[in-house]
Amino acid sequence: MLVRQMLAGVAEAVELDANELNDISTAVTEACNNVVLHAYAGAEGPLEVELYALPGTVEVVVRDHGGGIPAAGAASEQAGIGLSVIQTLAERSDFRVVKDIGTEVWMTFGAPQARAPAPLSDDELKQPAPVASQPAGSEPAGAIEITVAPAPLAWAILPRLLSALAARAHFRTDRIADIQLVADALTAQVPASIRGSHLSIGISVEPRDLELRIAPLLAGHAKDLIVDSAGGLGPLIGKLTTSQRVATLGSSDDEMLALRLHDRR
Amino acid sequence: MAVQDQLLIGVRLYKGRAVLSLRGELDLASAPLLQSEIESSDVASASMLVLDLQELKFIDSTGLRVLLTAYESAQERGQEFAVTQGSPQVQRLLSITGVGEHLRIIAPGDELLV
User: Fold this and answer.
1) Is B60 part of the contact surface with chain A (CB cutoff 8 Å)?
2) How many CA atoms lie less than 13 Å away from B25 in the CB half-sphere?
3) Most buried of the four, A86, B6, B43, B112, by CB within 10 Å?
4) CA A226 from chain center: how many Å?
5) Who contacts A191 (Cβ-Cβ below 8 Å, separation ≥6)?
6) pTM reported for the whole predicted model
7) Is CATH 3.40.50.720 the right assignment for the domain spanning A139-265?
8) Tens digit of pLDDT for each residue in A132-176?
9) Which CATH number does the domain A1-116 belong to among 3.50.30.20, 3.50.50.60, 1.10.10.10, 3.30.565.10?
10) Subunit contact A81:B97, Cβ cutoff 8 A
11) How confident is the model at residue B90 (pLDDT cuts 50, 70, 90)?
12) From A32, which residue of chain B is nearest by alpha-carbon distance?
């Protein structure tokens, strides 16, 4: 599962031990299962995961835009086991219905040895997560939105996530290698363009086709990254991705960079 | 041998025993694959069913449900049922849910696996 790939990357970055990673992976998997099984009544819908690494603590929020927890609570013994696993493994957990959005599972895991890859102040943690890279409610069915803080965590997860996604989308091996190059290039170039302490990665997967969205980036930076400038990824991105798109987020000047990757055969 | 993304199931039938060796991850996506292997006529008609979990890296509650269903079906059929210990993650989930208490857990080198 993709989210477990992401967590394995995070575990390396913040130096979680194997048991801590196992417990977090198990609980987060149950929260995601709950979304897949109950939030959208059998249909596909967006899944949002937020991950915050603080010294000694990892916080994860799993959110749907449907009716995850109430439906699950009434629905089945299976969901009941999943929820009780979350409650057992997380130091704290909370299940919330958010009006006009959906349902959320908040989980806090104690990880005494964990270090944050970059300092994150209380103020930064309290600031709202960035605007999702698609307007709320308009994510493609089956889209996954992952928000991490501090932002450098994104570089620990992006290569793993993209490789796993490309394999799931049935890309050929040589195309998976291209995608790895894109991930490496982004990892090298994007950090200077991040605004704030959070970064969102949006992903949509279709057979032999995937879209990657990164936001929020500083005004003007998304375009700079894909044009042929000194710090830009232009030549590489142009060669390896099928299309590139820059969008402005809501009323702010923040930008989103969207890259589409296709495996022609 | 059946493959579903990260789960690989090896099936051995020997002297009335069915040994299913699981490698990889048993989760929401792969649980139906194990379910159908367990329901196959060769496995269902064996006098003993052994699930070898030594190479199973990860299990979630949907996978656990399949293990429990297999155990319950085995009891109904009068079939013996046993599992080997899985990875630390597998052992942890079996332990916190109490499922492990119901299952006969055999050692990795047990002759039943041969």
Assistant:
1) yes
2) 15
3) A86
4) 22
5) A151, A152, A155
6) 0.86
7) no
8) 434 334 455 568 899 998 888 888 888 888 888 888 888 888 888
9) 3.30.565.10
10) yes
11) very high
12) B28
